[in-house]
Automatic annotation (TrEMBL):
SUPFAM superfamilies documented for this protein: L,D-transpeptidase catalytic domain-like, PGBD-like
Pfam families given in the database record: PG_binding_1, Scaffold, YkuD
Name of the protein described by the UniProt record: Murein L,D-transpeptidase YcbB/YkuD
Signal peptide: none
Origin species: Sphingobium wenxiniae (strain DSM 21828 / CGMCC 1.7748 / JZ-1)
């Protein structure tokens, strides 16, 4: 499935959250025969296991061949585009019965309300009847009917789960990451090439892990906090264990305890639990931050969860090789082959210079980079220093005539620094490569008109802070060489000190810059401060 395959419009019957492959099928079936799979395993299997696998495949072949013949006779429409090229070989039927991946699908359908969808749209009753008939009789016709019914419901469910909400905006820089409407053949092909079809369905591998984790955490959160009374707790108080009075009574009622009684152990435990689930220090004391969080009420948190579910819906599944940067937590993750390959801290844009929500293709790395200083920083930081007697050369900067690829270098003495400092004249200044360069040793580029990219940094102190929104919009990496090795499959090195050495990636990699103020945490939902004010 493409990097960001998703429908453009909300599917019919969807209640929006805001307001809402075949197991071990590693072969491409030019010849759709189980013996080919067996031969592909010979090298690592050994003689005895090979013989057992061969016997099992030979026993299975007649039954599945009969089912394939019935699929050929029954299949039509868009499903034929999937089954035809694979010789009509089934993905849900194993031997003479429907496989466990069908149970995983039914479980997902039954819980579809968590995705803002109606389970009835995917015919769970009809699927259960078809599976029961097929397994009860073992008849190839019944097995083929069940196979096609499962594929139809599966393709519809995947397309609907991936369909984005119009309430969340992501800027797409490249056609490769543009959402599109996946057809049933695309959806089924993506599933059929994974190492375990059952695991893919069970874990909804077409969805981002962020989405599935938040989906579960949201359900657990709702059971604990969603139905508690929306009672206002008096502000301006710091309520501690042992305290009594009206404020304590309101606090007890807000957290689902009887209003009578004081600040006892039960209330302290409830306050700690609420703090832990809402991104606060779990000290059991209801101070101003905790009271403010309580007074936001259940509806506020329900909407925050729904909004962040929709943000995670825009991210691809782990089978797509991609990078995710979350500006709210100031962290980066990278995925491929159905798993998380690594994560690291990042420094992202400050409130005044926010890192945007956008997606693009990382196409090349630049080693020994220059840093083109933003004009506002030239005006506010560099020009005043020059007026106080500093030297561009000693600060490792150079001034240039324009923003073209081949500008002329300017003498410091020829520049009207007073005009630059006052904002009357814009000047291009860049920092030369070196150990102290703000870009560090390398940067990773996904071309865009905002000048946003991922880069190394010589400044390490900010990575020790819990909140890391300090940059001018770009993403500073805790470990750029490690990410570079993942991009290129080898350590990135330079043969010289030549500035701006460009290295194209072997394969461009999608990167998604998002903003998640609610996510799955160690003990449930982790709510984060809305630093950018986007919620």
């Amino acid at each position: 499935m493409p990097a960001a395959s998703a429908a453009h419009a909300v599917p019919p019957g969807r209640t929006r959250l805001i307001t809402r492959p075949f197991r071990a099928r590693r072969i491409r079936r030019a010849l759709f025969c189980p013996q080919i799979l067996v031969l592909g395993l010979i090298a690592s299997a050994g003689a005895a296991p090979m013989a057992r696998a061969q016997d099992a495949a030979l026993k299975e072949a007649p039954a599945r061949s009969s089912v394939a013949a019935e699929i050929r006779a029954q299949v039509g429409g868009k499903l034929r585009d999937f089954y035809g090229p694979r010789g009509f070989w089934p993905v849900w039927v194993e031997k003479d019965a429907v496989g466990p991946q069908a149970d995983a699908l039914l479980k997902l359908i039954d819980s579809a309300e968590a995705d803002g969808l109606k389970p009835g749209n995917y015919d769970p009753k009809g699927l259960r009847r078809a599976i029961e008939d097929a397994d009860g009789s073992g008849d190839p016709k019944a097995l083929a009917r069940a196979e096609l019914a499962l594929s139809k419901s599966f393709a519809k469910l995947v397309a609907d789960m991936r369909a984005p909400s119009r309430a969340v905006k992501m800027r797409y820089l490249d056609p490769e990451v543009e959402p599109r409407d996946p057809g049933p053949a695309d959806i089924l092909r993506a599933a059929a090439v994974t190492s375990s079809f059952e695991d893919y369905v069970e874990k909804a591998g077409w969805m981002s892990p962020f989405y599935m984790q938040l989906r579960k955490a949201r359900a657990d959160y709702g059971k604990t906090w969603a139905d508690l009374p929306d009672v206002a707790v008096p502000t301006g108080l710091k309520l501690k264990p042992g305290a009594k009075g009206p404020g304590v009574g309101a606090l007890r009622e807000r957290l689902g305890l009887s209003p009578g009684g004081g600040y006892d152990k039960a209330l302290a435990a409830k306050v700690k639990a609420f703090q832990g689930d809402h991104g606060l220090t779990p000290d059991g004391i209801a101070g101003p931050q905790t009271v403010t969080a309580l007074n936001r009420g259940p509806k506020y948190y329900a909407r925050a969860l729904a909004l962040n579910m929709e943000r995670t819906r825009l991210l691809p599944g782990p089978w797509v090789r991609h990078v995710v940067v979350d500006a709210a937590s100031a962290r980066l993750w990278y995925y491929s082959g159905g798993k998380l390959d690594g994560t690291m801290k990042v420094v992202v844009g400050a409130k005044e210079s926010q890192t945007p929500m956008m997606a693009g293709m990382i196409r090349y790395a630049t080693l020994n980079p220059y840093w083109n200083v933003p004009p506002d920083l030239v005006e506010r930081k560099i020009a005043p220093k020059i007026l106080d007697g500093a030297s561009l050369q000693k600060m490792n900067y150079e001034a240039l005539s324009d923003w073209s690829a081949n500008p002329q270098k300017l003498n410091q003495s020829s520049i009207d620094w007073q005009a630059v400092a006052s904002g009357r004249q814009e000047l291009r200044v860049r920092e030369l490569p070196g150990r102290s360069n703000s870009m560090g040793r390398m940067k990773f580029m996904f071309p865009n008109d905002l000048g946003i990219y991922l880069h190394d940094t010589p400044s390490r102190d900010l990575f020790g802070k819990p909140a890391r929104q300090f940059s001018n919009g770009c993403v500073r990496l805790e470990d750029a060489p490690r990410l570079g090795k993942w991009f290129f499959g080898k350590t990135l090195t330079t043969d010289s000190d030549t500035p701006e050495q460009h290295r194209p990636l072997p394969q461009p990699v999608p990167v998604y810059l998002t903003y998640l103020t609610a996510a799955s945490g160690k003990d449930g939902v982790a709510f984060r401060p809305d630093v950018y004010g986007r919620d």
